[in-house]
Amino acid sequence: MQTGFAFTRFADRLTSVAELSSDDLDLLARMPSAIRHFSSHDEIRRRGEHASECCLVLQGYTCWKDADHSAGQITSVHVPGDIPDLYTTLSPRVDARLCALGPAVVAFVPHAFFRELSAQSERMAHALSLLALADIACLRNWLVILGSCESLTRAAHLICEITVRLRVVGLARDDRFPSPFTQSDLAAICGISPVHANRTIQDLRRKGLLHWQSRMITIADWPALVRLAGFKSDYLRLRQPVLQQDPLLPEPRTPDGLEMSSSTLAPATAAPL
Amino acid sequence: MQTGFAFTRFADRLTSVAELSSDDLDLLARMPSAIRHFSSHDEIRRRGEHASECCLVLQGYTCWKDADHSAGQITSVHVPGDIPDLYTTLSPRVDARLCALGPAVVAFVPHAFFRELSAQSERMAHALSLLALADIACLRNWLVILGSCESLTRAAHLICEITVRLRVVGLARDDRFPSPFTQSDLAAICGISPVHANRTIQDLRRKGLLHWQSRMITIADWPALVRLAGFKSDYLRLRQPVLQQDPLLPEPRTPDGLEMSSSTLAPATAAPL
DNA sequence: CGCACGGTTGACACGACTCAATTGCTGTGG
DNA sequence: CCACAGCAATTGAGTCGTGTCAACCGTGCG
After folding, report:
1. pTM for the complete prediction?
2. Is the dihedral of CA B89, B94, B96, B100 positive or negative?
3. B142-243 is classed CATH 1.10.10.10
C-alpha cells in the first residue's frame, strides 16, 4: 500500500464532472492504493463479496458482467479513471461480477479514504456524487439503446461512448485506442450474438467508419460514426462537452493509460507491489 | 403544504430495504408534502428542469421516459412508495421526462426534508442510500433483460417485478392490481413494438399465466410466470424476500394505493390542497 | 506439431417490425 | 338516446433483422 501517482487519471475524471480546488487535488494526491494486474477475463470482484476498498481502473478496461458464464450480459464498461464499485462505500456487498476486458491494471483504494475525502471537502463529496449520477445516466442511456436501436447503431454508439470517455481522461487523443476485448465481449455489451457482432463490425468497417485490427480501433470517420449512432454526449454530464470533431481538451499528456501489449502488459511507470 | 399521512407508503418502502428505529419513523411522520393529481401520460417533470423537491408516488404508476415523443423508450417504472427523482437532492437538474402511467397521485417533498433526515439520523441516511442502490440494481437488471431475453420473457419479467414491488408496499396482495397503462406503454418499457406487445400479452393469456382485462391484471399462475421469466427477486435488495408462492408480508392493510377508477380518480382518503 | 481460440462465412429458421385494415370501447355532442 | 369521434386493442400479410448451427481459417501457445 502506497501513496500517490494513481490519482491522476481519477483527478481527470473528477474534474470532467465538477470543478475542484487545488486543496481538493492535494487531498486526492494522498490517495493510498494497492496496485494489481489482471489478465483478460479475470474476475476482479466476485458476486456476493464484501468489499472494503474500491477499484480504480488505471489501465485497460473492466466491466460488470451479470451471469457467471462467459456469455452473460455486460451491464457497463469502465475505462481508466473510473471506479466501478464506488457504490460499495455505501453498502459493501457486491451484486455482480467485475471482470477485466483485456489485460487491466487496477488500484484498490480503501473505503475509508473516500469517507475522509467527503468529510474534509464538501466540494469533493459533491463531485463524488456527480460521478455516481453520471454512471446512472450512462446506464439509462444504454437501456434506451438496447430497447430501441438495432445492432449497427448499438455498436456505433458503444464506440462513440468509449472514445469520448477515453478522451475525458486524456486518452484516445488521436482517434486511436486499444481494443483488447473480443468480438464476443462486444456482443455481450450490445446484447447481440457473437456471430452477429462480427457481421456488425464488418459493416462498420465496410462503411469506412473505423478500422479494427490487431486489437486496436482507429476511428476513420468520426462525424459519420456519430451521425449513425445518433450519439449525443450530454448524458455523460460532462462540464465541457468533448466536441465531436475536434477534441478540445486540456493540456496534452503522454497516453499511458491504455498502452499495453496484449499479453505482456509491462508494469506501468513505477509499478509497485 | 401539509404534514403527515403521505409518509406511510414511503415508510413501507424504506423498511423493505433497511431496518428503521421508531425514532426514524417519527422523523418520517413529519414529512411535509404537497399532493398533486395527474392524468395518464401527463408530464410530471420536464427534461432540463431544476427540481427543489422530490416526487413521492402515492397512487398509480409513473415512469422515466427518454424521448419527447410518445414512443420513446421507458427506462424505469415506479409504484407507490417510490421516489423516482430522489437523486435530484444531489444534483437538481432533471435529465429526462417523468410521466404518469395512467392516473397518478404524487406528493412533492422538499429536498430540505431529506437533507435534514440524513443529518438527524445516520440510519436513515443509510436507508436512503440503499433505496438509491436498489434503483440502480433494478436498472442493471433491466439491461440484462433487454440484452438477452425475447419479448415473452421481458413482459413476464415486468409483470413479476411490478407484482413484487407492489407487494412490498402492501398492494397486490390478492395477485390482482390495476394496469391503467396501455399496451403501447408496455411496449415502450419492454423495448418492442406496440403491435408485438399485443401479441405477446395474448401469448401470456393463452398460456394461462394471467388475465388482463378492463385495466386490471390478475396473476393466474404465479409459479409458471416466475419460471417463464426466470425471475429472481434478489436484485431488488429486499431485506426479507417476498416469496414466490405465499406473500408472507407484515400486517395486512386496506389496499388504497392503487384503487382508482380509470378516469375519475377520486381524491384519496382525505385529499388536501 | 497440434490444439485451442478468436475471427469469418454461409445457410436456414424464427422472432420482431411495419403497414394496413378492422374491431371494440368510451366519452361526447347532437 | 343514438351517432359519432377517438383511442386502444386486434388481426393478417409480408419483410427484415437476428439467432443458431456448422464449417473453415488464421494465429499463438503448449
Report:
1. 0.89
2. positive
3. yes
